[in-house]
Each structure stands twice: as structure tokens, then as C-alpha cells.
């Protein structure tokens, strides 16, 4: 009879449920070479994601399917290093962008803002898959959609200024999340009801880890849509708006 060798680390069974680096073994006082190289590669991917750029041309072409005008804006952070060192500049539009929005007078319900954040890679790879699920849901509920906005060197709060200028009742910021060592392609969706400059984060709702290996597009779009509907129904967002729908199945 063949002898069955049981794994010595009880955490090995948990590897099936997480991409976290657990039960990777050791070589002497260090970790095995293969796992060490994988760690360095993941770190390189995370660094690359932080310095990645929005594929404006490619995204613009794909956004045509929604038949919505697209605006291109920029924060007060002029370049990537300044953006990383001065988060405050990423929360405000530069003068040219403010002038671009100055002539808007038509009120609207929802403005979708696509922002690079800390991983433009996440946006380039995943935002279209999410929008293809989400925009039809918003349209079936008769929400009036503003122009789609793409903004570079942006932080979440920049959506308040954009939405206020576009006279939108709710802002939905789709932004590249801070890359980790198990994911460099995750989108966060931040929604704010009655957005205006000066709001703080307790007045927002967030749906995070949107990517094929995280919260998939269908699940994410249903959760966002539920929160948008509830925000309009209750005329608020943030800590007072709870997700009571539970985890919606993507099957």
C-alpha cells in the first residue's frame, strides 16, 4: 500500500481560497527560490501599475458603443511623481478642466468618471467589462446619464468637483485601486449622492476589488446598481446607506 504523506503545514488547505502568500514553505531561514522570484515579480507588477497610463485612444474607441459624449480632464497634479507626493492635487481639477466644464447647464442624474488612480492598468483591462454590465442597468431604470468623463492623475474626491460642475445628483468614480502583491488590476467604484467640493469619505459608498479574479463584472454592476437606486430613494450615500442586498450571485 502506498504511503500517504500528509502536508506538515495546516495552512496549505487554505491556499484554495486565497491568493495570499500562505504556507509557501522555507529553504533554511529563507523562503524557497521559486516563491522568492514570484514575490519579486508581483512587486514589479505593482510598481508598473502605479506608473501606468490610461489608454485614452483605446478606451475612447470602445466607449463609442454607449453613444455618450466623452470629456477629458486633468487634475492639478501635473506629472506622476507630483501626483504620488501630493494627494491633495489629485483631488482638484486644473484650470483648463474647470473651464471645460464651465458651460454645462443641464442637470442630470448620474455622471460616470473613469480615473487612473493608482493603477491605470486596472482601468485599461477591466473598466469596459464593468460598464457593459452597468450602463444597461442604469438605462433600464431611466437614470439620465451625463457625459462620460476620463480624468488623469486623479484621486477619488475629484469626482465631487466634476459632478458638481456637471450638475449631477450622483457621481460614480471608477478608479484604479492601490495595487497589492496579489492584484495589480483591481477597480474601486465610489458613489456619492449630492456631490460637491469639500465632502469627506464617510459620505461615499465603495465597491472594491472589481476584476475577473475578484468581484466579477456582473456581481459588481448589480451591487453598484443597487446602491445607486437606494441612494436616490433615500437621498443619501455613505455610512448611512447600507448594502442590504447581500452578495448577488454572478451565475
Please tell me about this protein's structure.
By secondary structure, the chain is α/β, with parallel strands linked by helices. It has one domain: Rossmann fold (3-Layer(aba) Sandwich). The chain contains seven helices and six strands; from the N terminus they run ααβααβαβαβββα. It has helices spanning 33-50, 56-63, 80-85, 95-101, 120-140, 158-165, 217-234, and strands at residues 70-74, 108-115, 148-152, 168-176, 187-193, 204-210. A six-stranded mixed beta sheet has the order 1-3-2-4-5-6, sandwiched between helices. Strand 2, helix 5 (120-140) and strand 3 form a beta-alpha-beta unit. The longest helix has 21 residues, at 120-140. Mean pLDDT is 88; it is low at 247-251.
Main features:
251 residues, 34% helix, Rossmann fold, 7 helices, disordered C terminus, alpha/beta, 6-stranded mixed beta sheet, 6 strands
Q: In CATH, what is the class?
A: Alpha Beta
Number of strands: 6
CATH superfamily: Ethanolamine ammonia-lyase light chain (EutC)
In total, the number of domains comes to 1
Q: Radius of gyration from the CA trace? A: 21 Å
Q: Specify the helix fraction band.
A: 25-40%
Series of H and E elements: HHEHHEHEHEEEH
What topology, given as strand order, has the largest sheet? 1-3-2-4-5-6
CATH topology: Rossmann fold
Q: Total helix count?
A: 7
Structural class comes to: alpha/beta
- As residue ranges, the low-confidence spans are 247-251
Overall 3D shape: globular
CATH architecture descriptor text: 3-Layer(aba) Sandwich
Major beta sheet summary: 6 strands, mixed
Organism: Mucilaginibacter corticis
Function: Catalyzes the deamination of various vicinal amino-alcohols to oxo compounds. Allows this organism to utilize ethanolamine as the sole source of nitrogen and carbon in the presence of external vitamin B12.
Main location: other
Protein name: Ethanolamine ammonia-lyase small subunit
Amino acid at each position: 500500500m502506498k504511503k500517504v504523506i500528509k502536508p506538515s503545514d495546516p495552512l496549505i488547505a487554505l491556499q484554495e481560497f486565497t491568493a495570499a502568500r500562505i504556507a509557501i514553505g522555507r529553504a533554511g531561514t529563507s523562503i524557497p527560490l521559486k516563491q522568492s522570484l514570484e514575490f519579486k515579480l508581483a512587486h514589479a507588477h505593482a510598481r508598473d501599475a502605479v506608473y501606468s497610463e490610461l489608454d485614452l485612444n483605446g478606451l475612447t474607441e470602445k466607449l463609442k458603443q454607449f453613444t455618450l459624449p466623452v470629456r477629458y480632464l486633468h487634475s492639478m497634479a501635473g506629472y506622476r511623481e507630483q501626483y504620488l507626493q501630493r494627494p491633495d492635487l489629485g483631488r482638484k481639477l486644473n484650470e483648463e478642466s474647470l473651464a471645460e466644464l464651465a458651460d454645462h447647464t443641464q442637470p442630470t442624474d448620474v455622471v460616470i468618471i473613469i480615473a487612473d488612480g493608482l493603477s491605470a492598468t486596472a482601468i485599461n483591462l477591466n473598466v469596459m467589462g464593468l460598464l457593459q454590465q452597468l450602463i444597461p442597468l442604469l438605462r433600464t431604470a431611466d437614470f439620465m446619464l451625463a457625459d462620460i468623463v476620463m480624468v488623469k492623475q486623479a484621486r477619488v474626491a475629484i469626482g465631487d468637483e466634476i459632478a458638481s460642475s456637471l450638475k449631477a445628483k450622483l457621481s460614480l468614480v471608477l478608479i484604479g485601486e492601490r495595487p497589492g502583491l496579489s492584484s495589480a488590476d483591481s477597480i474601486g467604484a465610489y458613489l456619492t449622492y449630492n456631490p460637491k467640493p469639500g465632502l469627506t469619505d464617510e459620505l461615499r459608498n465603495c465597491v472594491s476589488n472589481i476584476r475577473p479574479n475578484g468581484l466579477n463584472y456582473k456581481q459588481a454592476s448589480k451591487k453598484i446598481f443597487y446602491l445607486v437606486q437606494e441612494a436616490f430613494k433615500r437621498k443619501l450615500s455613505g455610512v448611512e446607506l447600507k448594502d442590504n442586498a447581500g452578495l448577488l450571485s454572478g451565475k
